[in-house]
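Postdoc handover notes: sequence design on the structure in folder B. Input tokens:
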């Protein structure tokens, strides 16, 4: 039997999927297991049982084989892609010491590090002290050390979710360079752990010995163990190839390896990415992330609470649509599409700035979301449209910044993620960005990106360029409507782009009042 299938394991926030791709990028079959067992011991916290992730992976694989379209003996290699910055503590036996802290968790540590004088002076001169303090506060390791010292004392291995799953597959404590996006002492320029003298080591208690061995994207991490084979059905000794984070794989799976093409993710976190061969910071002192191609960079601008806002809207204002969806066997999101059809571009002057969760750079940690321009004529439908438009304005701001930093115009955007399934959202994106927007050839863009890594590693294609030409494409192109684009240009330039700086003094006052 020919071994010509790449198995992508895509562990997102809402589900884990086992995806079987061929060398042409066709999705031959998939199996999905929902991840519903998140816990929130306190408001703003988000955790998940560590073993539960691997159990779901095994269930997804066995479900894939049971569907009968794919024989596990056809699998030539396995590539894992996961949500970023979800952190796991293991003891010296490889057992979890506490639940995983999920990327969306909002707990904060005290800032207690004793930074060397030269770094303190430099950060002060550059106006970065607040940013570095917030980075240290957001670092999960610091919270664990301060609040669960026994856990930290017994932590032999500190891994991202990707590293944990790769460990369960191969028995080796190793992870891909392409997965290292989070609060770790990682050098984004050299794609390795920081040198001993780097300031990041002073901001967190982790030691090099607790971190995984880093393997270049596309290299072999190991092979499937006999134990894993019994649990997943993947044949023992199948190569496990170093993948990349879900956003990086989504960029690659969308075919965006040229800096004239942007990859937009309409996911829980909304992002816009471009790929560059050179190290370029999208914002000063904010690094580019590792791309899903070795020694290449993704310049990323993100809206942390991106299309999560649709869930927020649904919970707060969409109870009627939720009831209708249950009765008619559809989704509330499909019913929300009517809101975009019943309202005009610009939402009758209602402008949303979607900073529902603070950032580390710009916007700063004091930022809050705002809805500007209410009148008595505005309805639920206007609010929904304004949220979508606000996300699009934020992505346009990112697009213009990336064009400026890269000195390269973006001529087309490939738009993936849950929000991209809506024609109304796609048209708003095209109009606000004033740029053609296309859907990638598959909705499973992250999984396809992982499969491309595997295809190149296994020799099915000679380069990432040829692999992308063979395995990626686009569909459903949305061109900007000139009249809508002109209106959005005026609203973006005259209102949205001034909104944050105008309200920033009030956000700072609120931060003092609420000690945030």
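Designed sequence:
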């Amino acid at each position: 039997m020919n071994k010509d299938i790449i198995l992508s394991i895509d562990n997102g926030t809402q589900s884990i999927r086992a995806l079987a791709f061929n060398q042409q990028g066709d999705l031959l079959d998939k199996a999905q297991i929902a991840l519903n067992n998140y816990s929130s011991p306190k408001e703003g916290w988000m955790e998940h049982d560590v073993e539960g992730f691997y159990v779901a992976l095994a269930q997804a694989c066995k479900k894939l084989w049971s569907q009968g379209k794919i024989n596990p003996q056809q699998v030539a290699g396995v590539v894992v892609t996961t949500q970023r910055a979800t952190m796991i503590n293991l003891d010296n036996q490889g057992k979890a010491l506490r639940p995983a802290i999920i990327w969306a968790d909002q707990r904060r540590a005290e800032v207690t590090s004793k930074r060397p004088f030269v770094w303190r002076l430099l950060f002060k001169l550059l106006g970065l002290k607040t940013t570095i303090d917030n980075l240290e506060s957001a670092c999960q390791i610091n919270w664990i050390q301060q609040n669960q010292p026994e856990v930290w004392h017994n932590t032999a291995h500190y891994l991202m979710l990707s590293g944990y799953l790769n460990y369960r597959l191969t028995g080796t404590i190793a992870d891909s360079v392409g997965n290292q996006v989070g609060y770790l002492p990682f050098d984004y320029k050299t794609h390795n752990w920081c040198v001993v003298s780097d300031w990041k080591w002073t901001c967190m208690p982790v030691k090099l010995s607790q971190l995984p061995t880093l393997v270049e994207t596309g290299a072999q991490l190991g092979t499937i163990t006999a134990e894993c084979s019994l649990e997943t059905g993947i044949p023992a000794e199948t190569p496990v190839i170093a993948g990349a984070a879900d956003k990086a794989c989504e960029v690659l799976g969308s075919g965006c390896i040229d800096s004239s093409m942007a990859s937009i993710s309409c996911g829980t976190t909304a992002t816009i990415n471009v790929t560059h061969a050179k190290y370029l910071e999208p914002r000063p002192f904010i690094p580019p992330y590792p791309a899903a191609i070795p020694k290449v960079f993704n310049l990323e601008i993100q809206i942390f609470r991106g299309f999560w806002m649709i869930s927020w809207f649904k919970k707060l204002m969409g109870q009627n649509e939720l009831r209708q969806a249950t009765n008619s066997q559809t989704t509330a999101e499909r019913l929300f599409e009517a809101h975009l059809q019943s309202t005009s571009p610009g939402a009758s002057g209602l402008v949303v700035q979607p900073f529902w969760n603070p950032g580390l750079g710009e916007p700063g940690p004091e930022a809050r979301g705002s809805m500007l321009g209410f009148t008595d004529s505005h309805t639920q439908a206007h609010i929904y449209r304004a949220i979508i438009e606000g996300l699009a304005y934020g992505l346009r701001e990112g697009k213009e910044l990336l064009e400026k930093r890269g000195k390269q115009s973006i001529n087309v955007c490939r738009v993936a993620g849950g929000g991209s399934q809506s024609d109304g959202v796609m048209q708003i994106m095209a109009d606000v960005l004033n740029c053609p927007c296309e859907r990638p050839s598959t909705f499973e863009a992250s999984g396809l990106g992982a499969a491309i890594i595997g295809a190149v590693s296994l020799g099915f294609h000679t380069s990432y360029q040829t692999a992308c030409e063979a395995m990626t494409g686009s569909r459903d192109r949305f061109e900007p409507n000139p009249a809508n684009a002109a209106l959005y240009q005026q609203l973006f330039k005259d209102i949205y782009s001034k909104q944050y700086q105008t309200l920033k003094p009030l956000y700072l006052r609120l931060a003092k009042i609420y000690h945030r």
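Context for whoever picks this up: The longest strand covers residues 27-34. Don't rerun without checking with the PI first.
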